[in-house]
Specification:
226 residues, mainly beta, 4 helices, 10% helix, elongated
């Protein structure tokens, strides 16, 4: 056995207890690799008190505000392949511990962090040949979309999405109500949206001549030329 193979054999096993806290190690739907697949996380506010028996509130806004934010997320991205690059793995010492999810530190340092492991069991069964796994923590680009509710009795909606991680987190309320997701850190400025806009609420249609949202029963009058 060569020294390269020996060093590969000494790599630690992929720490499944840490990796699968918020997802499942599974086949990628796009390429022939094993990766971490994170389910969609949706948090809904509990219904308490008088609101639990109230009928659906009537709309009280013709239009509602939307905001889009840029964000960085720190989260483990796993890529396991059946034929790892042994020359690369041979240069890697024992991987350092993953960054603490509540203290991301220097983003440049996080970007440089590459951890290498071996995977000898998958779906509870041993693999004929150990796979090599690389884990990176980002920072990954994401967007957060805010949608104002069309009535005062329904909380506003938020949604975080990252195409790199194939991740989506939805919640209601305020920016501070974002649910905790294990191993996930989100870095963004709730006071600094990159883009703002308005959209018509259900039952209303945008009138191009005035730029306002009118009830569907009202016809938008054409602009009268001077």
């Amino acid at each position: 056995m060569t020294s390269t193979n020996e060093r590969f054999e000494r790599l630690p096993e992929l720490p499944m207890d840490f990796i699968e806290q918020a997802g499942k190690l599974d086949w990628s739907p796009h390429v022939p690799i094993i990766t971490l697949r994170t389910p969609r996380v949706t948090a809904t506010p509990p219904v308490k008190g008088p609101r639990a028996t109230m009928p659906t509130p009537a709309l009280n806004r013709a239009s509602h505000e939307t905001r889009t934010y840029h964000a960085w997320v720190i989260y483990p991205h796993v890529v396991c392949t059946p034929i790892p690059d042994l020359e690369v793995l041979a240069e890697v010492a024992s991987p350092p511990p993953p960054p603490h999810p509540r203290h991301p530190g220097d983003l440049a340092a996080v970007a440089r962090l590459r951890q290498f492991y071996k995977l000898t069991r998958f779906h509870g069964k041993p693999l004929e040949t150990p796979w090599g796994c690389e884990v990176r923590h980002g920072p990954w680009y994401a967007t957060i979309l805010y949608t104002q509710s069309c009535d005062d009795e329904t909380p506003d909606r938020w949604s975080l999405a990252s195409s790199v991680l194939d991740m989506q987190v939805d919640w209601h309320g305020t920016a501070a109500d974002m649910p905790d997701v294990p191993n996930l850190t989100v870095i963004w400025d709730p006071n600094g949206p990159a883009e703002t806009g308005r959209a018509c609420c259900p039952g209303h249609t945008l009138c191009a001549t005035t730029g306002s949202c009118l009830p569907n029963r009202i016809t938008c009058q054409p602009q009268v030329p001077y």
